[in-house]
Amino acid sequence: MNENEIIQKLKTLTADLYFMSESDYPFEVFNWGIKNDQEIKQIILSMHNADDRIITFKTSDFFEKIIYNFKNSEESLSLSIAKRYELLYDFIKTNEFETIVYKCGVIEIDVYILIVQSSKIVIGLKTISVET
User: Fold this and answer.
1) Confidence at 73, pLDDT banded by 50, 70, 90
2) What is the spatial distance between Cα 95 and Cα 13, in angstroms, rounded to a whole number?
3) Residue 111, phi then psi, degrees to nearest 5
4) Which CATH number do you get for residue 26?
5) d(Cα 22, Cα 91) in Å, to the nearest integer?
6) In whole angstroms, what is the distance from residue 60 CA to residue 90 CA?
7) 13 near 84, Cβ under 8 Å?
8) What is the average pLDDT value for the chain, to the nearest integer?
9) Confidence band for 119, pLDDT divided at 50, 70 and 90
10) What is the domain range of residue 51?
11) Does residue 49 come out as left (phi exceeding 0), alpha (psi in the -120 to 50 range) or beta?
12) Using the 8-state DSSP alphabet, how is residue 17 labeled?
C-alpha cells in the first residue's frame, strides 16, 4: 500500500470521528515524509513548550482502552463509535506498519498516532486530549 492510499484510507476512517476526552477533537491526517525516530521527536517538540515531554504508548494499549471504554456503554452511539475505532485500529494493525503513539503537552495534550512504513515514511493522525 503506498502512502497516498494510506492517507486516503485514514481520512475515510476518521471522517467525523472525534477523540473524546474532556472535549472532543477531530483527527488530522499528516505525512512527515522520511524521518527517523530522533527527527520525529524533534518535530513534535518543536510544536510545544521547551519543558514539555513526550510520553510513549503502545498503539495496542491506546486503541484497546478507547474501544473498551466505548463498548462498556449500552448506548447505541457509544457502540457505533467503538466499531469505528475498531475499524481504524484493524487497518493499522492488519497492514503490519510500525506504529507508536506519542503524547506531548499539558492540559491540551497533542496525541500523535504514527505509522512508519518500511521506507521510513511517517504518516499519522493527530488529535488533542484535554486532561485537567
Assistant:
1) confident
2) 14
3) -115, 125
4) 3.40.1460.10
5) 27
6) 10
7) yes
8) 95
9) confident
10) 3-130
11) beta
12) -
Helices first, then strands: H and E counts in the chain: 4, 7
| pLDDT tens digits, one per residue of 86-97 | 999 999 998 878
In the beta sheet, which residues pair with residue 125? Answer: 29, 113
Which 8-state DSSP code applies to residue 107?
S
Altogether, the residues listed in the chain come to a count of 132
Kindly state the cell numbers that stand for 110: 497533542
Domain count within the chain: 1
Torsion (CA) 46, 37, 63, 52 in degrees, nearest 10? -30
Residue 50 identity (one-letter amino acid): A
Give the pTM. 0.94
Specify which residues 112 forms β-bridges with: 102, 126
pLDDT of residue 11 exceeding 80, the answer is yes
Cross-strand pairs, 55: 103
